[in-house]
Amino acid sequence: MTEAFSWVFDGLLVIALVIVAARVVFTPVLFKAIVMFIVFGLLMAIAWGRLDAPHVALAEAAIGAGITGALLLAAYSDLVSVRRRRPHLRPRVRVLRRHAFFAASAALAFAALALVLLQVPAPESGAGTLAVANLDATGVAEGVTAVLLDFRAYDTLLEMAVLLLAVYGARAVLVTDSEPRPDPWPTEGRHGSMVAALVGVLAPLIVVTAGYLLWVGAYGPGGAFQAGAVLAALGVLLRLTGRLEPAAASSWPQRLVLVAGLIVFSLVGLATLFAGGTFLDYPEAWAYPLVLLIEIALTVSIALPLILLFSGSPGLATPAPEDRR
Amino acid sequence: MSWHEWLAVPLLLSGAVFFLTGTIGLVRFPDTWSRLHAVTKADNVGLGLMVAGLASLSASAAVAFKLVLVWVLAMLAATFSCHLISRYSLRESERDDR
After folding, report:
1. DSSP code string of A293-315
2. Where are the domains of chain A?
3. CB–CB of A192 and B80 under 8 A?
4. Of A194, A201, A202, the CB nearest to B83
């Protein structure tokens, strides 16, 4: 009974994923495509949950659906304002129908590959088995956090560098666009007192949730990436409701937060190197506090770049009290 | 089946009925406001009945508390998104009238 129900549920989920994915690609209306993309992310999060991968489900919901959706909507609203001011610059949205043949061939090739891969027997002992066997040495009880911050800490360090580079890349593009642009999120008169009240209720809840996700990462699904994405969602809300305003330059505390993850991570790595060990190989007694320290720094250094990317400004500022509506 | 399972079945079923009618209303109703009316009312009560059913199925106070928290937050989000969507479509329709 339960198994039959699982099959029906998973089957419906797969069909919905395929239909929504097709809608994302084939919808000629850009706004609909974005909304469908967000729906796709949420369905995908449920699919990851069904596959017993709550970490990926959390990341997909927070980053894939939430932050990416907000970024796409921000880009869309910018696009609309560009079209309004310069109608001759009408970017064409091409429907990919004529590429159906290539899509079908690609799907066929993928299916053939998947069929071959399914025949290959699973390796007797891969990196995963080794990692689980050595989990005790990492100071954290959660496998995914151990992999991210211990077994492949170097990769995570480089990912933080990539995120920082992305922010500076976006900023470089921003500077070359010399034409002054209207803020895509004008606040005056658009949001009533209800939205302000909602943000007032949600802000502390979001901070608590982010803190919980950060803390629980050591022994359950959670961690710096999910916590950072949740904090970034708060930043998006504050930016949308005018509690945070774009600034022409980032203040030095903001710059510090941007690089905190990279610096703390690198310093810990150098310290382990000079203490006579390998780069980023924590001594066993220190493993948990070091991982926690790195996770805290990573969380803020993940959240701020995402907020800046959404805001589309080099920095953020709180509005002067008399401007607040 | 124990008593809390007997309690859960009708709650879950009536919750499902609310979701079904809300979805039919969302698909069939003619304009934004009646659609919102259908989907938010059904969502709030439907999710509430689901939460009540799941809480009694779990037979654990801690799980029930978390479920109720989910319900309250979902209602909060639904209320505000309903408000924003209806206000936006009201403004758009006023702009079209002019």
Report:
1. HHHHHHHHHHHHHHHHHHHTSSE
2. 1-116, 141-325
3. no
4. A194
